[in-house]
């Protein structure tokens, strides 16, 4: 087992904030590259000579690679430290974008987005691991939410500014410069980032595959990690499915809106998350006991929103769509609660792995739902029927979240009874598992 690192007590230093900011800019670049296909899609279709279905493959491939790489990323971060993994992330992101700049065939385009998805997958978990090492527990949620807010600047840069660059200098110079800048930024990260306030993480001995699997299994068995997985699964997939793939087709083909109006409506998700993230982070940082009530409140509200969207007779007015999307945009900030659970219920040397496990949840749910919506749309030709896939995944995720909330609480009661320190003090309720059926303790 790797040596334990001391958690930060008191306040984070100025140096830790600078290190975090340097790493958060990697996440900004990552989100910029991830979302750049949103506005480059039509030009890509022209360049590669493909239709809309083939374009959808780019998104599914990218999200699929991202999801598949989360657990390996967590393990890599715990073994080698976030600095090295962030440097690797920038090199893959840069290479992917440079390949895309010069690609003229669909095959090379797909390879480029796959490489880019690989680099993207290495980023977020590394930044969260860095935050866990550099900041005290009570600041974790708020610094994490600042990170995602910075990520949304990358998302915004990939909208109008990228459209202007593609229309002006064009595809090759735009993506080439974006790729080169990203690659060069790796030198800054290598020079400035430190894994822990003391320097680099203590070197861990080489561990074999069985030991790595044991590390993943141990993280997965912790009720707090499992709860985090289901919280992430259930809260963030619907905003993702709408913003990454089906939002524009639903609004244009299903609701008869102009493409420009549809794109403008989807920015509600960006601004909602940018505002909601720091608010949620500050709230749960100050009152960790509110974490699960907030998740359950969001899930109940999301069920109502989907009932309204899918049950609305005829065309849904924009005045209804805007508040509905604003509410759904809070799914991203709510999903950050999942990472706070992973951080609180795992020792620091396993936080990367647990974070990776949790992050698989939302992206697996996104991939499954995006594919299911496509299949149902093909079969029915009706968006209301196709989007029922969202409702089914929401119901499944809510059920599993409630099951694991109850189990995680039982583990907390058991730990409290043993006199152990627990992240949140909880009082037994009528619906809690009874004492004679307690499950093993978290962490
Ligand atoms: N929960 C998201 C981030 C988020 C926050 N607000 C809206 N979205 C997440 O898991 N992000 C991972 C990533 O790589 O972006």
TrEMBL record:
<dbReference type="Pfam" id="PF07690">
    <property type="entry name" value="MFS_1"/>
</dbReference>
<dbReference type="InterPro" id="IPR036259">
    <property type="entry name" value="MFS_trans_sf"/>
</dbReference>
<feature type="transmembrane region" description="Helical">
    <location>
        <begin position="140"/>
        <end position="164"/>
    </location>
</feature>
<dbReference type="GO" id="GO:0005886">
    <property type="term" value="C:plasma membrane"/>
</dbReference>
<feature type="transmembrane region" description="Helical">
    <location>
        <begin position="318"/>
        <end position="342"/>
    </location>
</feature>
<feature type="transmembrane region" description="Helical">
    <location>
        <begin position="383"/>
        <end position="403"/>
    </location>
</feature>
<dbReference type="InterPro" id="IPR052187">
    <property type="entry name" value="MFSD1"/>
</dbReference>
<dbReference type="InterPro" id="IPR011701">
    <property type="entry name" value="MFS"/>
</dbReference>
<protein>
    <recommendedName>
        <fullName>Lysosomal dipeptide transporter MFSD1</fullName>
    </recommendedName>
</protein>
<keyword id="KW-0458">Lysosome</keyword>
<feature type="transmembrane region" description="Helical">
    <location>
        <begin position="48"/>
        <end position="69"/>
    </location>
</feature>
<dbReference type="GO" id="GO:0022857">
    <property type="term" value="F:transmembrane transporter activity"/>
</dbReference>
<comment type="function">
    <text>Lysosomal dipeptide uniporter that selectively exports lysine, arginine or histidine-containing dipeptides with a net positive charge from the lysosome lumen into the cytosol. Could play a role in a specific type of protein O-glycosylation indirectly regulating macrophages migration and tissue invasion. Also essential for liver homeostasis.</text>
</comment>
<feature type="transmembrane region" description="Helical">
    <location>
        <begin position="227"/>
        <end position="252"/>
    </location>
</feature>
<keyword id="KW-0472">Membrane</keyword>
<feature type="transmembrane region" description="Helical">
    <location>
        <begin position="354"/>
        <end position="377"/>
    </location>
</feature>
<feature type="transmembrane region" description="Helical">
    <location>
        <begin position="170"/>
        <end position="191"/>
    </location>
</feature>
<feature type="transmembrane region" description="Helical">
    <location>
        <begin position="293"/>
        <end position="312"/>
    </location>
</feature>
<dbReference type="InterPro" id="IPR020846">
    <property type="entry name" value="MFS_dom"/>
</dbReference>
<comment type="similarity">
    <text>Belongs to the major facilitator superfamily.</text>
</comment>
<feature type="domain" description="Major facilitator superfamily (MFS) profile">
    <location>
        <begin position="19"/>
        <end position="409"/>
    </location>
</feature>
<feature type="transmembrane region" description="Helical">
    <location>
        <begin position="85"/>
        <end position="104"/>
    </location>
</feature>
<keyword id="KW-0813">Transport</keyword>
<dbReference type="GO" id="GO:0005765">
    <property type="term" value="C:lysosomal membrane"/>
</dbReference>
<comment type="subunit">
    <text>Homodimer. Interacts with lysosomal protein GLMP (via lumenal domain); the interaction starts while both proteins are still in the endoplasmic reticulum and is required for stabilization of MFSD1 in lysosomes but has no direct effect on its targeting to lysosomes or transporter activity.</text>
</comment>
<keyword id="KW-0812">Transmembrane</keyword>
<feature type="transmembrane region" description="Helical">
    <location>
        <begin position="264"/>
        <end position="286"/>
    </location>
</feature>
<keyword id="KW-1133">Transmembrane helix</keyword>
<feature type="transmembrane region" description="Helical">
    <location>
        <begin position="17"/>
        <end position="36"/>
    </location>
</feature>
<feature type="transmembrane region" description="Helical">
    <location>
        <begin position="110"/>
        <end position="128"/>
    </location>
</feature>
């Amino acid at each position: 087992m790797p040596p334990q690192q001391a958690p930060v007590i008191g306040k984070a230093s100025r140096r830790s904030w600078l290190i975090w900011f340097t790493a958060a800019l990697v996440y900004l670049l990552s989100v910029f590259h991830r979302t750049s296909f949103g506005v480059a899609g039509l030009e890509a279709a022209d360049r590669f000579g493909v239709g809309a279905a083939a374009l959808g493959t780019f998104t599914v491939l990218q999200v699929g690679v991202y999801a598949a790489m989360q657990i390996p990323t967590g393990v890599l971060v715990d073994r080698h430290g976030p600095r090295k993994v962030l440097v690797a992330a920038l090199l893959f992101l840069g290479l992917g974008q440079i390949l895309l700049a010069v690609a003229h065939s669909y095959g090379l385009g797909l390879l480029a987005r796959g490489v880019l998805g690989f680099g993207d997958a290495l980023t977020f978990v590394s930044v969260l691991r860095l935050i866990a090492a550099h900041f005290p527990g009570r600041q974790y949620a708020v610094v994490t939410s600042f990170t995602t807010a910075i990520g949304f600047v990358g998302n915004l840069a990939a909208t109008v500014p990228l459209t202007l660059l593609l229309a002006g200098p064009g595809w090759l110079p735009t993506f080439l410069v974006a790729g080169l800048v990203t690659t060069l930024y790796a030198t800054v990260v290598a020079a400035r980032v430190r894994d822990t306030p003391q320097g680099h993480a203590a070197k861990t001995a080489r561990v074999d595959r069985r030991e790595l699997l044991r590390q993943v299994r141990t993280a997965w068995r912790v009720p707090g990690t499992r709860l985090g997985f289901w919280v992430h699964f259930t809260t963030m997939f619907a905003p993702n499915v709408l913003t990454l793939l089906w939002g524009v087709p639903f609004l244009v083909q299903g609701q008869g809106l102009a493409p420009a109006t549809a794109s403008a409506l989807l920015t509600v998700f960006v601004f909602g998350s940018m505002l909601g993230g720091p608010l949620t982070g500050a709230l749960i940082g100050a009152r960790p006991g509110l974490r699960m009530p907030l998740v359950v409140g969001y899930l109940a509200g999301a069920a109502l929103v989907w009932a309204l969207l899918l049950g609305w007779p005829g065309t849904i007015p924009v005045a209804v769509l805007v508040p509905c999307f604003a509410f759904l945009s809070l799914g991203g900030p709510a999903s950050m609660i999942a990472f706070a659970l992973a951080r609180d219920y795992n020792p620091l040397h396993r936080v990367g792995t647990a974070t990776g496990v949790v992050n698989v949840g939302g992206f697996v749910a996104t991939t499954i739902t995006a594919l299911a919506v496509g299949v149902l749309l093909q079969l029915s030709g009706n968006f209301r029927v196709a989007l029922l896939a969202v409702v089914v995944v929401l119901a499944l995720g809510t059920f599993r979240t409630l099951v694991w909330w109850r189990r995680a609480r039982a583990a907390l009661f058991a730990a409290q009874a043993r006199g152990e320190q627990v992240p949140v003090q909880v009082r037994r309720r009528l619906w809690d598992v009874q004492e004679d059926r307690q499950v093993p303790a978290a962490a």
